[in-house]
Amino acid sequence: MSVLVTGGAGFIGTHTAVVLHESGRDVVLLDDLSNSSNEAVNAVRSLTSPDLPFVEADAADQAAVGRAIVEYDVDEVIHFAAYKSVSESVEKPLAYYSNNVGSTIGVVQAMIDHGVSRLVFSSSCTVYGEPDEVPVTETSPTRAVNPYGATKLVCEQLLADIAAVSALDVMLLRYFNPVGAHPSGDIGEDPSGVPTNLVPFLMQVAVGRLDRLNVFGDDYNTPDGSAIRDYIHVMDLADGHVAALDALTANTGCVAVNLGTGKGYSVLEVVAAATEVIGAPIPTEVVGRRAGDVEQIWADPTYAAEILGWRATRSLNEMLADHWRWQQQHPTGHKDSN
Q1: What is d(CA 300, CA 263) in angstroms, rounded to the nearest whole number?
Q2: The domain that contains 155 carries what CATH number?
Q3: Following DSSP, what letter does each residue of 150-219 receive, concatenated?
Q4: Is 117 a member of any domain?
Q5: Which residues are catalytic?
Q6: Are strands 228-229 and 265-266 parallel, antiparallel or unpaired?
Q7: Which of 28, 79, 135, 338 is the most exposed place for a label (fewest CB within 10 A)?
Q8: What is the layout of strands, in order, in the sheet containing 169-175?
Q9: What's this model's pTM, rounded to 2 decimal places?
Q10: How many domains are there within the chain?
């Protein structure tokens, strides 16, 4: 029996694959490499097994997913494959709905066709939109304020509807802001083009790939005027996926769980912490607010501790130090491995 990881060559997928392997599971990666690379797959193999299976396919291709399920005797799935940039989703909503909802339909249809009933779905705190109060719990209102978040909400509703009338059991994991890298520095976040998320953008400035960090707005109603987010180490997040798969045996139907630390940091606080970790100043420029961004959000992680037996343990400094190690070893990303 195996676990199929769609989007397995991406940032969270690669780190989760390593932790899944360490948990004793057989892991199969599936990715169309549209926003990742073979080098990322090879890096995962270097940390796990040289013959770890990889299927190059679009998760929306129901037949291809089905063939992978049959060939590798898959009995559980983690579905990461999706576009994930808030700002890009505002510019390209049709692409986001087509890809994110389409891939979820393809994966779930293949699972149903082949009798696979255990699914962990990669959702997002963006489903909460601009919250009325923080921290947010799993019962906080959902009202996405950008197309990316809306696609995750559509997929959550789709999965809940299917679970209600079938044998499908689903954990909807609502991530907050994943950063960091594997402590080896062998795998990490490798975005295509200019990063749209704070920490990879900041690290590319620190390593000299970009001139300065854009701070999108300093006039929010926060202590220092910059937006606040809950940053979580990608290795803590990966551990959360293993815990979610384990918890599916005792939790049927469709369950939503926040994965965050319970603490928010502002953009400027992260810049200050990164300056300390890196040992050099980060050139910044304040620009206008970005469409689709919320002012502040962080998680209440209580339910994750109850249902998964999981809590985030790594600090912001650990996140930044591990991310910096990856960026130093791979200044231009996985292509450095060539």
Answers
A1: 9
A2: 3.40.50.720
A3: HHHHHHHHHHHHHHHTSS-EEEEEEE-EEE---TTSSS----SSS--SHHHHHHHHHTTSSS-EEEE-S-
A4: yes
A5: 148
A6: antiparallel
A7: 338
A8: 54-56, 26-31, 2-6, 74-79, 118-124, 169-175, 254-259
A9: 0.96
A10: 1
Contact of 267 with 227, CB cutoff 8 Å: yes
State the pLDDT confidence band at 337, using cuts at 50, 70 and 90: low
The one-letter amino acid at 271: V
Return the number of other C-beta atoms located less than 10 Å from residue 203's C-beta.
27
DSSP for 28-40? EEEE--SSS-HHH
* Site of tokens 């089905």: 66
User: What residue numbers bound the domain in which 125 lies?
Assistant: 2-179+232-260
Look-up of token digits 């978040």: 149
pLDDT over 70 percentage in the chain: 99
* In a domain? residue 302: no
Contact between residue 333 and residue 190 where contact means Cβ atoms under 8 Å apart: yes
**C-alpha separations of 96 from 7, 10, 64 in Å:** 15, 17, 21
**What's the mean pLDDT when you consider all of the chain?**
96
- Answer yes or no: is 191 within a domain: no
